[in-house]
Amino acid sequence: xxxxxxxxxxxxxxxxxxxxxxxxxxxxxxxxxxxxxxxxxxxxxxxxxxxxxxxxxxxxxxxxxxxxxxxxxxxxxxxxxxxxxxxxxxxxxxxxxxxxxxxxxxxxxxxxx
Length: 113
Prior knowledge:
elongated, 113 residues, alpha+beta
């Protein structure tokens, strides 16, 4: 027959082992902070000229657009859907990876020729 103290000690050891495994299974994804500059209608819809936005890594332009939509709402979402994006002065699509401290320009369609 097993001693109750041995059983308790075994149970505690198993719990400690399970908690250690749970902690090791957690993947920490660093966040990436980028500078977002808005132009024309995007500026009006966002209500700010520029802002710093933090997106979980690996961040993409598409993930940033999602974060901006959550932050500013449907009015900006409509503008973002029609906008072009420059990442560090290079035209970029939704799959473009964002590095920390990148500059992202939001360029809505402009009237004129």
